[in-house]
Amino acid sequence: MWETTMSQSVIPGPAKPAPRAPRTTAGLGLAALTALVVGSMIGSGIFALPSQMAGSAAPGPLIIGWAVTGVGMLMLAFVFQTLATRKPDVDGGVYGYARAGFGNYIGFTSAFGYWMSAWVGNVAYLVLLFSTLGYFFPAFEGGATVAAIIGASVVLWIVHALTLRGVQTAALVNVVVTVAKVVPILVFIAIAAVGFKAGLFTADFWGKTTQIDGAPLGDTMSQVKSMMLVTVWVFIGIEGASVYSQRAARRADVGRATVLGFVGVLALLLLVNLLSYGLMAQAELAGVPDPSMAGVLENEVGSWGAAFISIGLVVSLLGALIAWVLLCVEILRLPALENVMPKALAKENRHGAPATALWLTNLCVQAMLLWTLANASTYTNLIYLATSLILLPYLWSAAYQVLLAVRGETYGDGRGRTRDILVGAIALGYAVWLVYAGGWQYVLMAAVFYLVGTALYVWARRESKLTVFTRAELVVVAVVAATSVLAVALLATGHLAVL
C-alpha cells in the first residue's frame, strides 16, 4: 500500500489507487447498476414535487429552473461517466475520485460525508414511510409515534437481514422494487396527460399575480432560485453506479447506467411536475399536503387515486431504503481496503456482504430513529441535513475531472480534453452553487460530523502504521476544527438548530 509522504504544498497530493480486491461473486450488470441509480434517486422527492414546486414558482420560472438544473446535473452525470472510463483503476465513485485527486484525508471526508448522508437519508425514508402508512393506519400518523418507530425498526432490520445475504441478492430485489415503484408514477403521468388543462397551466405563466399563503412569488429570478433549492434532494443518487464500480461486470456499464438512470428520472420528474400545473390552480396545488401527488390524483379521479399513490410511495421508499443501505456499506468497504477507514469495515461474510459496515450503519439508523421519537425531528430537516453532507463529495468529483483535463492526464492524443474541461467546469460550478444553496447552518453541522469522524481516519492510519496527516492535510483538519468550534458555539447559544 502506498504511503502518503509529508508535503510542503498547500493542496493535499493525490493518492495512488490500491490494487483492486478480487471479486468473490459475479459482477453487477447494466440493468442492476441502472436500477441502483434509479432506485436511489426515486425515493420520496418525486411524490412531494407538485406542491413543493407550486409553492416556489410559476410555470415560466419553473421551466427555466429545470433547464438550469437539468444541465447542471447532466454535466455531473457526464463527469461520473467520463471518470469511470478514463480512470478504470479508481473504485468507489465519489470517494475514489476525491482520494485520487486530493489525497487520503479528502478522500476520507468524501466517503464519511457520503456515508453519513446515506444513513441519515434512510432515517428520513423510514419516517416518511410510516407517515404514509398513517393514511391507512392512524397509529402511524406523522411517522414519529411509538408505533411508527417500532414499525420502522422492524423494517430496518428486515432490510439488514436481506443485505447480509449478499449484495447480489439485495441488488436483484432492488431491480424488482424499482420497476414496481415506477408503475404508479407512470399511471399518474398518463391520467394527468389526459386531464391536462392548458388554460390552468398558462393562467399566470410568470407568477405575477399568484400568491401563496398571502405572499407573492417574487420576480422571475427569485422564483427560479427558490424552486432550484427543492431539486437538490430529488437528484441525490445520481452517483449510485459509480460507487459500485468495483462490483460492475463491465466497467463501461458504470457510465452508461449513470446517464441512462439520470435521463429516465429527469423525464419522470419533468412530466410529474409540469402536468400537475394543468390539473389544479397553482395556489390550490401549493396547499396540497404531502405526498402531494396523492392529493392531486385524488382531486382528479377520487379517493382511490390517493390510496394508489400512497401504496406506490410505500413501495418507492422501501426500494430507496434497499438501494441506500447498499450504498452505505459499499462506501465504507472500499476506504477500509485502502487504509482510509478501519480494516474491520472491509470484512465480508460468506455471502460477500460487508457485515461490520452494515451493522455500524444500521445501528446508527436505529439510534437516530429513537432520537427522532424523542425530539420529533421532521422529515424535511432530516433530508436537508442528508443533502448538505453529500454536496462536498459531488464537488470533489467534478474538481477531479477538471484537474485531470487541465493536467492532460489520460489525454495522450489530446482528444476530448477541451470538452471535458468545459463539462467539468460547469459541473464544478453547479456543485459549488449547491453547497451555497444547502444553507450555511447545514454546512456548519457537516463540519462537526467530519471532525468527529476524523477519529476513524486516525484509527485507520495508525493501525496500518502509515503517516496520519501530511502538512497540507493538517491545514484542512484545522479548518474543519475551527468551523466545528463555531458550530458548537452557535448551537450552545441557540443561534443554530438543524434537528
UniProtKB/TrEMBL annotation:
- Residue ranges with Polar residues bias: 1-10
One GO cellular-component annotation of the UniProt record comes to: plasma membrane
Record InterPro entries: AA/rel_permease1, Amino_acid_antiprt, APC_superfamily, Arg/Orn_antiprt_ArcD
Which GO molecular-function terms appear in the entry? arginine:ornithine antiporter activity
What gene is this protein a product of?
arcD
Protein name per the record: Arginine-ornithine antiporter
The protein's UniProt keywords, in alphabetical order, are: Amino-acid transport, Cell membrane, Membrane, Transmembrane, Transmembrane helix, Transport
- Lineage, broadest ranks: Bacteria, Bacillati, Actinomycetota, Actinomycetes, Mycobacteriales
Annotated compartments = Cell membrane
* GO biological-process terms attached to the record: L-arginine catabolic process; L-arginine transmembrane transport
The residue ranges crossing the membrane are 26-49, 61-84, 96-116, 146-164, 171-196, 226-245, 257-281, 301-332, 353-371, 383-406, 418-436, 442-460, 472-498
